[in-house]
Design a protein that fits this description.
Blueprint (H helix, E strand, L loop, with lengths): L1 E8 L16 E6 L7 E7 L8 E7 H4 L18 H9 L4 H4 L2 E4 L11 E2 L6 E5 L4 E2 L2 E2 L11 E3 L8 E3 L3 E5 L12 E4 L6 E4 L3 E5 L7 H11 L2 H7 L10 H6 L5 H11 L6 H11 L4 H22 L9 H11 L17 H12 L8 H15 L2 E3 L15 E3 L1 H8 L6 H22 L2 E5 L5 E5 L4 H15 L4 E6 L5 E4 L1 H6 L13 E5 L4 E7 H4 L4 H10 L6 E8 L2 H7 L7 E5 L6 E4 L11
């Protein structure tokens, strides 16, 4: 078979969140044929639902499964910049054989040698190294607060499980995709003992069972701990084990280059940025690969900013980080202090993601970016809508966003000595800003069909909701009872819980409610109305969602999409589900029925 489509998930927990299952998931479509296609379609899920915010790429088949790879590893690259990482890694020509090295799994399986393990030293034991001893590229032994044994008895029974003392490179065998690093390596220097024990949850590099050149060990460790190697490794390893086979598969720099790298680092303690800089300079990493690594770093920094200002969990993700970068015009090589605040529309931001970070989002995800990131940014006070024309119509193609000046000042300080003070001042200023906004927020007065007066916040879909309540309901649901009204600024304005209970309807509080729900008692119908400016029209997916949400109801369900104009309707015409209704606000006396033969027949003259 050959691969046609591959779909992966950003999170291991999202797909089965209701069952609390942590599981790597992949969906692929393969075709039984010997003809290799030109491209493979690769998509990536950010959200929990399949149709929400997927990255989309068409990748040459030879880049997914390399023709000359005897192991036929599958490389899943969702980011065009990361193609350069693969190109760079292919430039390295050395195998472990070329380096005179081998890699093995730690021989000591602790549960099989329980009687030989020791939690303290004695004159008959030697060090036993567990993963917990590996920190920051070095082995710290014994650990400060060991949770495992620290020694193993040296005797004829344990001799075959021990290795001669020497310079080794140890790597952890287990790491998950959510962790900061997939490959974690450390240098182990020779000690005062003739042999040591290496536990089974570690891999170790060695020279035919012996230690290796000290600078080779240091250089190999630096290479394995580089962001370049980590980013590349994630392209073909999605499981939780870093197997010895995976590490054997890698191409390495030459022995001389690794020794030169190791001699430059020596016993220095370098942070990740310093380590990457030395690796890039010593190994002459191509600028395109360096740019890809820098892009990944900028996204992590943007996430750190969102976390630092207490953004909601749902907005602490790559999509929101990219929106923040786009609004600050921070490209991979732009320092934070050079941030600016251009005005950008959603489409412009998505093009910017693609051009500068290689992140190409599917065209149908524009609304998700708006609803799941920009709406919350506005509510948090990070972003201002339409600073050039605040009264711009909600359906205007020129609707745009710009960083608030206070947010821009904060972002410029990121990474500097003033960051913590700036973050503290920002928290105070944005609290005052939101309070002032709430006090001064203009309102839309609305009169319900029963004469009750309510107020909607100005913005979003609320002008259209006002027209639904004051024009649609009196004409098409006379005497109807409005039991739910959503609001662009607040979660809801009306939520008649008791009325739902009286009608025998149990609502899942986690479900996405329609904008307006009316009980039309004369027909015993529930009218479920979506204002198209909020969640889009009632398409087949949304219709199924609403049916599921109101499955406990024995009332007839009527699905209505409300549009501000017929022109706006034409944008969504192909999406509107059959067996639904359409109402147009600027032509309020008419309905359009997507119901087929039920309404076939002549009109009276």
């Amino acid at each position: 078979m050959v691969l046609s489509n591959i779909h992966i998930f950003e999170s291991r927990s999202a797909a089965f969140v209701e069952d609390k299952v942590l599981q790597e998931n992949i969906i692929f479509h393969a075709i039984k044929t010997e003809i290799i296609p030109d491209y493979v379609e690769i998509t990536k899920n950010i959200e929990s639902k399949l149709d929400e915010c997927s990255e989309l790429r068409y990748v040459p088949y030879s880049q997914v499964v390399e023709p000359h790879d005897s192991e036929s590893f599958i490389h899943i690259v969702t980011n065009s910049l990361e193609d350069y990482l693969r190109v760079q890694m292919n430039r390295f020509s050395s195998t472990l054989d070329d380096l005179g090295l081998e890699i093995s799994t730690g021989p000591v399986v602790d549960f099989r040698l329980k009687s030989a393990l020791r939690t303290c030293w004695d004159d008959k034991s030697v060090p036993l190294i567990y993963p917990e001893a590996i920190k920051a590229g070095k082995v710290f032994f014994p650990p400060s607060n060991p949770r495992k044994a620290i020694a193993i008895t040296q005797n004829p029974e344990t001799a075959k499980w021990l290795v001669p003392s020497g310079w080794y490179v140890l790597t952890k065998r287990f790491s998950a995709k959510e962790e900061k690093r997939r490959v974690v390596a450390a240098v182990y220097p020779p000690g005062d003992f003739p042999v040591i024990g290496i536990e089974n949850h570690l891999n170790y590099y060695h020279a035919q069972g012996q230690g290796m050149n000290p600078d080779l060990a240091r250089g190999l460790t630096a290479f394995l701990n580089s962001t370049l190697l980590d980013s590349y490794f994630r392209q073909f390893s999605g499981h939780t084990q870093v197997n010895a086979t995976d590490l054997r598969k890698l191409k390495y720099p030459s022995k001389d280059d690794l020794i030169r790298l190791g001699s430059q680092i020596g016993d220095s303690h370098l942070d990740q940025e310093q380590l990457d800089q030395v690796v890039h300079q010593t190994l002459s990493i191509m600028s395109e690969a360096t740019n890809a690594i820098q892009a990944s770093k900028r996204i992590e920094e943007a996430l750190a900013i969102l976390k630092a200002i207490s953004a909601p969990k749902a907005q602490q993700n790559e999509r929101s980080a990219l929106c923040l970068l786009a609004l600050a015009d921070i490209r991979p090589d732009t320092p934070w202090y050079q941030a600016t605040a251009p005005r950008r529309r959603i489409t412009e931001m998505m093009d910017w993601f693609r051009d500068h970070y290689g992140k190409q989002y599917a065209p149908n995800t524009r609304e998700t970016v708006r609803r799941q990131t920009m709406h919350q940014f506005v509510q948090m006070g990070i972003v201002v809508e339409n600073p050039d024309q605040p009264e711009r119509p909600i359906n205007s193609p020129k609707w745009c966003y710009q960083l608030h000046q206070q947010a821009l000042s904060l972002i410029k300080s990121y990474g500097s000595a003033q960051w913590e003070e700036a973050r503290h001042n920002y928290a105070i200023s944005v609290t005052n800003l939101l309070q002032d906004r709430k006090r001064n927020r203009p309102i839309i007065p609305v009169t319900l069909p029963n004469g009750q007066a309510i107020q909607l916040s100005s913005g979003g879909q609320n002008l259209l909701i006002k027209n639904i309540l004051e024009s649609f309901c009196p004409k098409f649901t006379p005497g109807g009872f409005v039991i739910y009204v959503g609001d662009a600024g607040d979660k809801f304005i009306i939520n008649e819980t008791q009325k739902f209970q009286e009608l025998g309807i149990e609502i899942d509080t986690h479900g996405k409610m329609p904008d307006v729900v009316v009980y039309y008692e004369q027909q015993d119908w529930l009218i479920l109305i979506e204002a198209v400016t909020s969640h889009g029209p009632v398409n087949l997916k949304r219709r199924n969602e609403l049916q599921q949400l109101f499955q406990s109801s024995r009332k007839g369900l009527v699905f209505v999409t409300a549009f501000p104009s017929r022109q706006e309707m034409t944008r969504y015409l192909a999406e509107i589900s059959w067996e639904t209704e359409v109402w147009i606000s600027d032509q309020p006396d008419h309905m359009i029925h997507f119901n087929g033969e039920r309404f076939l027949g002549p009109y009276e003259s």
